[in-house]
Amino acid sequence: MKTPRWMLAAACLCVLGLLSTSASAAETKEIVLWHGYRAEEKAALEKLVNQFNTANAAQGIKVTTLAVPYDAYPDKISATVPRGKGPDVFIFAQDRLGGWIESGNIEPIDFYLDDALRKRFIPTTMEAMTYRGTSYGLPLNYKVITLIYNKKLVPTPPKTSGEMVTLAKKLTDKKAGRFGLAYAYGDFYYHAALMNGFGGGVFGSGATPTMNSPENVKAADTLLKWVEKDGILPAEPTSALIISLFNEGKAGMVFSGPWFLGEIAKGVDYGLAPLPKLDEAGGKPMRPWMTVEGVYVSSKSGNKDAAFELAKFLTTEASAKVLALEGRQSPANQGVYSDAKVSADPQLKAFREQVETAVPMPNIPEMSMVWSHATTAMSSILKKTAPPKAALDTAQKGVVKDVANLRKK
């Protein structure tokens, strides 16, 4: 007895259905995202990942997150990604970007970018994601230092360095342990705001070291004036001392970033304002370094298209609003600052204003050669073991030598 045709057709359809279901299951795309966030930043990111997973469930895309301890993060990327054992997508600041690119760890993304997507971001944040003319990530958020002041002691924040010094002198009483200004001026990261304000920097064209440029020397001279002649800064301020002085009403002004705000005591009424313009540099603004956390696609990811879709989703205006209001971050998406709630937030507004004069921290591999020599130079200058020019000359020689050795590798 022959099997009826309709039964054969039904059987075929059943088999095809099973094959389709099997293929669909096989096409599930698992995306692993690494980040270094904690507390509210972590909660905001995970909320967005859940939204992405819900929206893309029908496409079989699922993202899982892993919070990596910050101190171990860079080494883990360097160790795992080349072996295909790391994340598909990861979030990190741009200062390691050049080294990771040279090692082949990060996928270039120019193929995915169009003008509309590029214009989504504050221009300098996109610049921070660019290495040798190629884009390697989408900027997620940025961090800069700005002026944080005690409103009880400083009713109106100074707009110029001259105003700042005059006010700080009135507030300083060293016998009572009070200072008009407190910041980690011996730390080269913080000193960069002064250095860049004078038009200095650590590299010229072609990544040529410029540690001992005349502008850098002038910046160091100005710092010494604030410390010694004007006497408005505490000696060798540590992070703990700066926080303590500010919370006890013994520091009128501080140069610091968003990380400092969480340390301010609840009873302190504080405000934020742009860093002052430098009278000593013809009215040019202080220009702090800007670090930009980007979203990068691993060069070893097996699902690069889906990974980039995640990066794109995390940097939308809607996502940026969550990161801003719930994660307390400063998004690189420039459209979000037109939102009523975001624009009304004094913290977000202040950092957005400051970023207009900020300088993206160099993302080239040679930057890793700078820190130890710059730290030694700052110590020599402040401890008076060498004048600024001599200390920076020594730093220049050291950086030039180390950069040359790096390029031989």
Notes on the protein architecture:
With 409 residues, this protein is of the alpha/beta class. The strands form four sheets. Strands 1, 2, 3, 6, 13, 14 and 15 form a seven-stranded mixed beta sheet that branches. A four-stranded mixed beta sheet has the order 8-9-7-10. It has a two-stranded antiparallel ribbon with strand order 4-5. The radius of gyration is 26 Å and the shape is globular. 44% of the residues are buried. Mean pLDDT is 92; it is low at 1-26. The termini are far apart. It has helices spanning 5-26, 39-55, 73-80, 97-102, 115-118, 123-128, 161-171, 188-197, 214-229, 239-247, 258-261, 304-314, 317-325, 340-343, 346-354, 371-382, 388-408, and strands at 29-35, 61-67, 89-93, 130-131, 134-135, 138-143, 146-150, 179-182, 251-256, 270-273, 277-278, 284-285, 289-297, 330-331, 359-360. The protein is 44% helix and 16% strand.
Topology at a glance:
Elements: H1 5-26, E1 29-35, H2 39-55, E2 61-67, H3 73-80, E3 89-93, H4 97-102, H5 115-118, H6 123-128, E4 130-131, E5 134-135, E6 138-143, E7 146-150, H7 161-171, E8 179-182, H8 188-197, H9 214-229, H10 239-247, E9 251-256, H11 258-261, E10 270-273, E11 277-278, E12 284-285, E13 289-297, H12 304-314, H13 317-325, E14 330-331, H14 340-343, H15 346-354, E15 359-360, H16 371-382, H17 388-408
Parallel strand pairs: 1-2, 1-3, 8-9, 13-15
Antiparallel strand pairs: 3-13, 4-5, 6-13, 6-14, 7-9, 7-10, 11-12
Helix pairs in contact: 8-9, 16-17
